[in-house]
Structure formats: C-alpha cells, structure tokens
Amino acid sequence: xxxxxxxxxxxxxxxxxxxxxxxxxxxxxxxxxxxxxxxxxxxxxxxxxxxxxxxxxxxxxxxxxxxxxxxxxxxxxxxxxxxxxxxxxxxxxxxxxxxxxxxxxxxxxxxxxxxxxxxxxxxxxxxxxxxxxxxxxxxxxxxxxxxxxxxxxxxxxxxxxxxxxxxxxxxxxxxxxxxxxxxxxxxxxxxxxxxxxxxxxxxxxxxxxxxxxxxxxxxxxxxxxxxxxxxxxxxxxxxxxxxxxxxxxxxxxxxxxxxxxxxxxxxxxxxxxxxxxxxxxxxxxxxxxxxxxxxxxxxxxxxxxxxxxxxxxxxxxxx
Length: 319
What we know:
By secondary structure, the protein is mainly β. Helix content is 9%, strand content 54%. The protein has two domains: 42-198, outer membrane lipoprotein receptor (LolB), chain A, CATH 2.50.20; 205-318, Jelly Rolls (Sandwich). It has three helices and 20 strands. The strands form four sheets. The chain has a ten-stranded antiparallel sheet with strand order 4-3-2-1-12-11-10-9-8-7. Strand 1 (47-54) and strand 2 form a beta hairpin. The protein is globular and about 65 Å long. The termini are far apart.
C-alpha cells in the first residue's frame, strides 16, 4: 500500500508540472514556459515568412521584418523584404500586421488607434475586445499547449477570427478570418521564423482611393478618382494600382486608360484581346493632386476589369 501511494503521488506531481524562475513547464499546458506566455522581445532583423490566402486575390507570400525599434514612441516598425510585395499589400490591403506595432503589447493600428489583438501574459479563459479588419471583435483565449496559444473571436456582424500565437516564434502561427456566410476572407500561415535579416525593408502606408469592378458595356465607360494627398500639407509619395482582368474568349476585347486631368498624361494604359487575362498585376503611377480620369471599353459577355488604386507614403530601411 505504501508503494502504491508513493507511485500515485509521483504521478500527480508529474502531471501537475511546476513553475520556477528557470522557465520549466506550466500546469496543464504541455511544456509551455513562462517566457512563452509573456510579451516577446523583438529585435531589429527578426523575420517571419507568411503565406496569405484570400478568395479575391489568391495566394501570395511576404517576409515581415522588424525594420526599426522606435524607443521614443514605444513602437516597432514592421515592413516587407520585397518592395513589390509592399506595393501589392498596400493596394489589396489584406495584411493588418504591417507598419507600427506597439512595444508594450504588439498592438497593431486600425484607424490610427492601437488595437490589442494579443493579450499578454496569456491565460486560458481571458477575454478582451479589439477592432481589426473593419470588425469589432470579442476574443477569448481557448487553449495553451506546447508554447502555442489558441484564440477565438466573434464580431458583431457574425464574423469569426481564429488564430494561434506561437510563444516560441514570437508571432502569429496561423490566422483565419471567416465572414458570416462561411467564406474565408483571409488565411495566414507561418512558414519560417528567423533572425538577423540583412538587406532592404519597405513599408507603404496606404489609403484607398478607388475600387471598382467594371463589366461588359456597349459604350465607353467613364469614371474618376480624386487624389487629395495624405493630408492637406503632405502629398502621397506614389499611387499604387492593382488589376484583375478577364476578357471573353468569344470576340471580347478591352482597353483601360488612367489620365491626369491637369496635364493630360496617361501614366497607365492597357489593351486586351479576346481571351486575355491579367491576374493580380500591380504597379505605381505618379501622385498628382487633383482628379484622375478613367476610360474603359469592354466587350464580351463575361469580360470584366477590377481596378484598385491606393495612395502611399513610402518608408524604407537598409539593415
């Protein structure tokens, strides 16, 4: 009997785990350590390679890099290692984790306000609120196991946000945003975490100027957008455009021109023949305060042109 009781006691201690200053495993949550529940300590050059998947824009990847540590205002600057990907993410705007991130909680900014997407130190059952991706979320920490924290959130509009924060990788491991109709608006998957990045890093701080889907029409299509600059005292550094085009195979055709109303120049011009496609192309045109005119011709029953334009302030670093 004494041996049985001793074995039972040892098993109980083994399952319970212990908490020490040495960071040993915590009770009931695998081999998670105290450090893995705490706020990560990011350094310049920390990097995470992600795959982003959206139904509208398909799949792309981006390497997010800690480009700067601004001790004066308590913020990290998180950019992308590719300028092309920085432009793409600026105009399609599906990456909420770019730009400023607070040092005191890794809060990201939406509408100029820091949003507590993460809740350090992590604790099972904790609840909190934040705004992200145009939704107001109520979040809960559901589970913690082997250094990974599982969070679920619901919005007032019936959307769900499920994500896993990796204490060992210091950032999000997976994220899925699903709308009220059950469609995945966004998925993020971490492919690689590394440190010591060297090279150029870019961030395009963007504001939407135009987003329209054009379909077959017997007449010329006229539209416009107005470039007012980032503020009354500061112009955008550049405008970024995005195109998604499909032209009907049975006699379809299309043209697109963006013209500057002030000087008459046409910084963007396209022509497509029957069966042509242009999926996910993007680029830049000069930012000039004033009206920009859009002219399209579009023939073919299934033909369409999706055009997006954003203004951007460009930041870059060399690490």
